[in-house]
Design brief:
Helix content: 10-25%
Strand content: 15-25%
Oligomer: single chain
Radius of gyration: 15 Å
Number of strands: 3
Length: 69
């Protein structure tokens, strides 16, 4: 499964989140239920990008990192 297939699958109706982790199959959230996508071999590169907004900086400063996600 390449990234194009993962992204195409993640835009289906009801899908809100796409979670990518190195060495694990992609996970999607559909109607508040987390589901694993079937792995057809290979690996998916995973990157996480967090924008440094003032709200994010305040949560980090206040040690409330769990609230960022």
């Amino acid at each position: 499964m390449d990234i194009t297939e993962v992204l195409a699958f993640s835009v289906q109706p009801g899908t809100s989140d796409l979670d990518l982790s190195a060495g694990l199959p992609p996970m999607i959230r559909v109607d508040a239920d987390v589901r694993r996508m079937k792995k057809s071999g290979g690996r998916v590169a995973a990157h996480e990008i967090m924008r440094g907004t003032s709200a994010t900086r305040n949560l980090i400063r206040e040690d409330k990192v769990a609230q960022i996600y």
